[in-house]
Amino acid sequence: MSQPSLEQISSQLDSENSKDRMLALASLRNIPAEEAVPLIKKVLKDENLQIRSMAVFALGIKPTADCYPILVNLLESDPDYGIRADAAGALGYLEDPRAFEPLSRAFYEDTDWLVRFSAAVSLGNLKDPRAHDLLIQALDSEEVVLHQAAISALGEIKDLSAVDSILRFAQAEDWLVRQRLAEALGNLPSPKSISALQYLEKDGHPNVAAAASIALKRLTEQGHEF
């Protein structure tokens, strides 16, 4: 099946049928960013929430100069928490260092946990060490998913100073938290990390044990032996 032309996609995005608009948006996958983004913008205010969500995500993987300000505006002002969370996630995909401030504000000020979760994950994608204080605070959140996001992000930014703070989750009830811990420790070479990973290798959940084994292997291959 041949790739539809930009004119065909643009016309399909104006269709009254939401399925047509969704298919048109999906067909932009292989279109260069500079040509795709003007078409994506056509459905950013679509009445169908799933289409809006797809469009916001698309801005994160089709970076142009227009994408950053659009996503920040959506993150800060869209009334739908799902769209705000999508915008936070897309900003992480852009990996634009300017996103540190709006993502931090979203984490501290947004009232919805899903937005705060997406902001924390994206701060990890930015790999900006300034996120340390925010992510350490997230470890004390009541939402377990925020523990997962913060632990992963601290690993992403290779924050060695956070090792003591995250090790308290080695016996967390949620196995996903323990898995995220094992994965993060693989980026945080220290004697305490090695010891914790050897402990997590014996975890009762196979995903946690496997993640710990992979992390230990990675540290060993990098020459980290303590």
From TrEMBL:
GO terms for molecular function: oxidoreductase activity. Pfam families: HEAT_2, HEAT_PBS. One of its GO terms (cellular component) is phycobilisome. Coiled coil: none annotated. Keywords: Antenna complex, Phycobilisome. SMART domains: EZ_HEAT. The keyword Heme does not apply. This is HEAT repeat domain-containing protein. It comes from Pegethrix bostrychoides GSE-TBD4-15B.
